[in-house]
Amino acid sequence: MKAAENQKITKRSLCSVSVAAGKVAAITLIANGLLVGAAVAAPPVIELEIRDHLFYPAEFTVPADTKIKLLIHNMDPTPEEFESYELNREKVIPGNRRAVIFIGPLKPGTYPFFGEFYPKTAQGKILVQ
Ligand SMILES: [Cu+2]
């Protein structure tokens, strides 16, 4: 969402460049600043795998107050649902597919997650520090 907003703003800024030629330098600087800002704001990516109905890694640490992108590869041929009450997330990942789930910014603590289709084995937790 944030990146899209930034892009819109950037486009608008670039549009006004052609209109107000006298302000080209200043507006270009602003546009560059927004682009840099968008790049810096790109959330860190954590990659997970589901294999034999287990999460790898089953436990990992992420920084507090930071938006995180989880990229979850389901290596099993069967679907799994990533679910976490504490994170307020649930998403079905078909067999041999991957899914993206954004989490955070989170307060420090422990956030369990599990695979709803194989909850006895597929369990993990995210430590937020
Ligand atoms: Cu569910």
Explain what the structure shows.
Helix 1 (2-19) packs antiparallel against helix 2 (24-40). The chain folds into two domains: 2-40, no CATH class; 45-128, Sandwich (Immunoglobulin-like), CATH 2.60.40. Helices cover 27% and strands 39% of the residues. The protein is globular, with a radius of gyration of 20 Å. The protein starts with a helix and ends with a strand. The model is unreliable at 1-33 (pLDDT under 50). It is of the alpha+beta class. The structure holds copper (II) ion (CU). Copper (II) ion is lined by residues 81, 83, 90, 116.
Write the layout of secondary structure elements.
Layout: H1 2-19, H2 24-40, E1 45-51, E2 54-56, E3 59-62, E4 68-74, E5 80-84, E6 89-93, E7 98-103, E8 109-115, E9 123-128
Parallel strand pairs: 1-4, 3-9
Antiparallel strand pairs: 1-2, 4-7, 5-6, 5-8, 8-9
Question: Could you give a quick summary of the protein structure above?
Answer:
It is built from two helices and nine strands. With 129 residues, the chain is of the alpha+beta class. It is globular and about 35 Å long.
